[in-house]
Write a structure and sequence with these properties.
heterodimer, B: alpha+beta, 5-stranded mixed β-sheet, elongated
Chain lengths: 130, 718
């Protein structure tokens, strides 16, 4: 079975690099897009299994990217985890409503983040909601 | 009026001779009439008197009248009214009228009198000769020198008697006292004194500072009332302060413009205008009407008036100053208020900018912190290769600091939100065990590194609390972090929840075995930026915001927070949260002014995914004083139930249900989806209790009934 591919969409190169190293160490394949404009074309090209998306992006915010992706039938079901510096109080609900399956505020707790990645890739059974 | 209004009817006796002209004297004051009657009588005229316009008209109609001499200001109609009346009738239109008035009372009399057809307008004081000449000319006779008795102070028939003058003095003073504008009052004073004393010429010389602070200043004063210092003859009376009479001074020395024939050797009367505290100037009278020197009586009357007027002037000046001061104060206050408003506006703007800046900064800090955090962790996890012990230790320090930095950023933002009033807290019915357990789990890693044991001790019977679970966890995490910081290795931290003394609150505590806090500081530590003065200095990192945030969070949830400590014996942080009690939440609705007869219990059953949006919508539907939307959702099999209790009857309940349905419909339309929900209503009758029950018991019973209804409704759904 080939490695699952994760697309990181974030304009902060160091954050992207860190997540890249971490995810690769976990055996994932990683692709990167640095702005909203290239995000969709990169998605088309890379066909990722999971997208990790920042909200504050050059060329349009993460919500625009999410709307575009959700409107494309090939990617409508691709899970998206939002990782943003913004306050969950203001952004989390909006992100979940727009179709994200999880939300993390920077700096992320690695353990929780990796668990969410696994869960969204169907590698760990989703724990039932209480 | 000084004279009493005696019944004066027209005096007809003595009957006029055929060759005698009859002159009607109209004046409301008897003393004025007496003066004219005696002067005219002496000159051979027959006189009649009237004290009002009406009486004058009567007299003119009844008697043969050849000339009318009338005062202007009379209480029941002025001299001008009389003139108009006479002019309007054919048989009286030809009758000559002389208007005789005090100039200071009616400054426009000359123009007005002429306009209305008066033969002449004379101002008091007038030389008796001038008055008689005018009378003769009005009667169509040539001017004639009428021999007057030689001037003699004892039998001075060219001047009104002392009674008249004393009465006039009081009148004048009353008039002057009413004048509010100091400058006008002084001008009136000069004319009135001139009239009273009986001087042909007069000038008022003021000292320069007499105007200080009084209204408009010297520009409003006639030129001849200027500085008293420029006239040498005034030096003595001004310094002496008493009135004096002199002769043999030239007009230039006392500054009064006199006609040529009086240019030398005229008698002059100096009347200083002064109070005990202030010297205002000097009034100079020159040339006595009727000739001769000024009498003792003239001096006394003039001096009395001058003394009084000085007092009145002082009052008027003080009044003007006070008014000006009041106006200035009002202006200043207004300006100050305006500038305060502006300041408040600026401050508000500054706060907004600061909040925006802090929000921006903390947002921008998060990405770099994440990069540091991630790479440190990658190294610690040996993703990039094995570490030796020293490398691991150094990286652990870096990692810990990155975490602290992250907490500080969060605290900073939280504080900004508290200040901006944007802290969101959503109290629900929660079991405190969950957030306590989470806080313990979160702390475990750090605590274990320091060899500290974190324990939880939950009483089996703690009731549900009305609180925001996320916020409770935040408070606890903060308290536990602090406890770890201040507890030495191998210490112990215990989290405990128990029912507070009065059953209305749950008390949560975090106890440590650390260094403790001095008693004096147990309240100060909740202040922003406060740092305790004991403990491990190296561990004391942070902004000192944590406890201030905790305090705000606890208080916003209706509880209190405090610390108990004995230095050396550890400290115990305690906070309370209200027990979730349907009855307490219902009390304001069921029992407002009197016990309600019935309440409507409305349940809104919603699919789980919609609950988040539904609450604000429902809140918009209720009237805060009459209805209550119970906090928290009650999980049932197929979703959640919101419970709303309204103090209303079936009819009102139906209206409320309709309103809720409309609102939900609208909000779901705007959200772009159709979401299933169900609204149901039940009316709970609250039976009247036997009267021997007290109000408290009745209320308790009613609350129990409503609570029972709510429970059964939810149970049906499950």
């Amino acid at each position: 079975m080939s490695a699952k591919k994760i697309l990181l969409i974030d304009d902060d190169k160091d954050v992207v690099y860190a997540l890249n190293v971490r995810l690769k160490s976990q055996g994932y394949e990683v692709a990167v897009a640095g702005d909203a404009i290239s995000a969709v074309s990169t998605t088309r090209k890379e066909k990722p299994d999971l997208i990790v998306l920042d909200i504050g992006l050059p060329g349009g915010d993460g919500f625009v990217v999410m709307d575009r992706l959700k409107s494309l039938y090939q990617f409508a079901l691709t899970p998206i985890i939002v990782v943003s510096a913004r306050e969950p109080a203001s952004t989390k609900d909006r992100a979940l409503k727009a179709g994200a399956i999880d939300y993390f505020q920077k700096p992320v707790n690695t353990k929780e983040f990796l668990a969410a990645v696994q869960r969204s890739l169907g590698e760990v059974p989703i724990p039932s909601q209480p | 009026m000084i004279e009493e209004r005696t019944q004066i009817h027209v005096k007809t006796a003595p009957v006029a001779n055929d060759d005698q002209e009859t002159i009607l004297v109209v004046d409301d004051r008897a003393i004025n009439r007496d003066f004219l009657v005696s002067l005219l009588g002496y000159s051979g005229y027959h006189t009649l008197e009237a004290d009002s316009v009406a009486q004058a008209i009567d007299s003119i109609h009844r008697d043969r009248v050849d000339l009318v001499i009338t005062d202007v200001q009379m209480p029941e109609g002025s001299g001008f009214t009389l003139l108009e009346r006479l002019q309007s009738e054919n048989r009286t239109a030809h009758l000559p009228v002389i208007v005789y008035t005090a100039a200071y009372r009616t400054p426009d009399a000359a123009a007005k009198g002429k306009h209305l057809g008066a033969f002449a307008v004379l101002h008091k004081p007038t030389e008796p000769q001038d008055l008689l000449d005018t009378v003769r000319s009005a009667l169509g006779k040539p001017a004639q020198e009428i021999p007057l008795a030689p001037v003699d102070n004892k039998t001075d028939n060219t001047k009104p008697g002392l009674g008249y003058r004393a009465a006039a003095l009081v009148e004048i003073m009353l008039d002057l006292a009413e004048e509010q504008v100091p400058e006008r009052m002084l001008a009136n004073f000069r004319q009135a004194t001139q009239e009273l004393v009986g001087a042909k010429f007069a000038a008022l010389h003021l000292l320069p500072d007499a105007y200080a602070g009084a209204g408009e200043g010297p520009s409003s004063i006639p030129a001849n009332q200027s500085s008293a210092h420029q006239y040498p003859a005034l030096a003595f009376p001004l310094s002496d302060g008493r009135p004096c009479r002199r002769t043999g001074v030239t007009p230039a020395e006392y500054g009064v413009t006199v006609s040529e024939e009086h240019a030398t050797d005229s008698p002059v009367l100096f009347l200083p205008v002064r109070t005990r505290f202030h010297n205002y100037g000097c009034l100079c009278m020159a040339v006595r009407l009727g000739g001769g020197e000024f009498s003792d009586e003239d001096e006394r009357l003039g001096a009395t008036l001058a003394t009084k007027v000085a007092l009145v002037y002082e009052n008027a000046r003080f009044h003007a100053e006070t008014q000006e001061y009041a106006a200035r104060m009002a202006r200043e206050i207004e300006e100050r208020e305006r500038s305060q408003e502006e300041l408040a506006q600026i401050r508000k703007e500054q706060v907004r900018l600061k909040d925006e800046f802090l929000s921006h900064v903390s947002h921008e800090l998060r990405s770099p912190i994440m990069a540091i955090h991630q790479f440190t962790e990658i190294l610690l996890d040996e993703v990039a290769g094995p570490l030796n012990a020293q490398q691991r230790e150094y990286l652990q320090i870096a990692f810990r600091n990155a975490n602290q930095l992250s907490t500080m950023v969060s605290d900073l933002l939280e504080t900004t939100r508290i200040e901006a009033g944007k802290l969101s807290i959503e109290p629900q019915a929660i079991a405190l065990a969950a957030p306590i357990r989470e806080a313990v789990d979160i702390a475990q890693t750090t605590a274990r590194k320091k060899g500290i044991e974190v324990l939880q001790d939950l009483s089996a019977t703690i009731p549900l609390a009305l609180a925001d679970a996320g916020r409770v966890r935040q408070i606890l995490t903060n308290l536990v972090d602090n406890a770890i910081k201040f507890t030495p290795e191998n210490g112990k931290i215990t989290l405990r929840a128990e029912l507070h003394d009065d059953d209305a609150f749950v008390c949560v505590s975090v106890a440590d075995t650390g260094c403790g806090i001095p008693a004096a500081e147990t309240t100060k530590i909740f202040d922003r930026h406060y740092q305790v003065s004991v403990g491990d200095w190296s561990a004391r990192k942070g902004l000192g915001l944590g406890l201030a945030i905790c305090k705000e969070l606890v208080e916003r949830q209706g509880g209190t927070i405090w610390a108990e400590s004995e230095p050396g014996a550890g400290s115990r942080f305690k906070f309370t949260l209200p027990v979730f009690s349907i009855a307490r939440l219902l009390a304001p609705v069921v029992m407002t002014e009197a016990l309600a007869d019935h309440v409507a219990v409305i349940t809104v059953h919603a699919a789980k995914e919609n609950c988040r949006d539904m609450r604000p919508t429902l809140e918009r539907c209720i009237l805060p004083d009459l209805d209550v939307l119970l906090p928290g959702t009650y999980p049932v099999k197929s979703g959640n139930v919101f419970v709303l209790v309204a103090r209303t009857d079936a009819k009102g309940g139906e209206v409320l249900v309709r309103r809720i349905e409309e609102q939900l419909e609208r909000s779901h339309e705007s959200a772009g989806g159709s979401v299933p929900y169900q609204v149901e209503m039940g009316i709970v009758e609250l039976p009247r209790q036997p009267s021997q029950l007290g109000m408290a018991e009745q209320t308790a019973n009613a609350l129990r009934i409503v609570e029972e209804k709510i429970r059964s409704t939810i149970a049906e759904r499950s």
